[in-house]
């Protein structure tokens, strides 16, 4: 029986009683078994040919075998149901039991071949008949699944990123005990080991963040080493420097005072030791008069306790 409700591509039809009356579903009864399902169109050429054969003895042989029935359908124009694929035999007298039936419209174009337009495809497995979904239904189902998984992913990833001015965006596993204080985690690390005052014996301590601090410390150390290796050859001098690492600019070039930094050449007196033009060195005094004999010389100091 067909499942009630829903589209045709969402139901499964089977009739054990009809299959038993036809001595099972086989090569000569497959199209007539399919004609009892809700997938069958009573206005098709299959129904017209079957009705004519039942009331006209001269056409009865067309419904005896599937080859004769389909051969007669190929001479007619209009809507028809044809077997597109038979069960594949993996061994003698054993098959997969899967039949493929197509609903199609045939148009005669003599002397050219017939124009066949396929509308839908059906599968018959055992006694169950299924309607194959269309390409649009398959793509729509896949897109719905993708959107559902993307919503779950975005909801999960939204709680992962953390941002701080010093480190930027960091992605850490979600924790139920996240810190809600506006202070940075580095400043909180210094307050973990601070003893509580005696007046607050039952006060709760801040949650342990040693693991987070270790991660942040390693991250900060790695970025510091990276900056040092990248900009370690840049130095600051007495000239004002503007800019940032990797883009430093000197406010002055220092070329105007290059003479002060030059080393004097050998054999040349420094500028500060050169004599002014017109100046002469003072003459040495050579006419010093001799000392007189009767003159008293400088008195030597008296020693304590000594004689005259």
From TrEMBL:
- Domain of life (superkingdom): Eukaryota
Q: Which residues form a coiled coil?
A: none
Q: Name one GO biological process term.
A: regulation of transcription by RNA polymerase II
Cite the InterPro entries for this sequence. Answer: Mediator_Med6, Mediator_Med6_fun, Mediator_Med6_sf
GO function terms (MF aspect): transcription coregulator activity
What is its subcellular localisation? Nucleus
Keyword set for this entry?
Activator, Nucleus, Transcription, Transcription regulation
Query: Which Pfam families does the entry link to?
Result: Med6 (PF04934)
Q: Which family does it belong to?
A: Belongs to the Mediator complex subunit 6 family.
The name of this protein is Mediator of RNA polymerase II transcription subunit 6
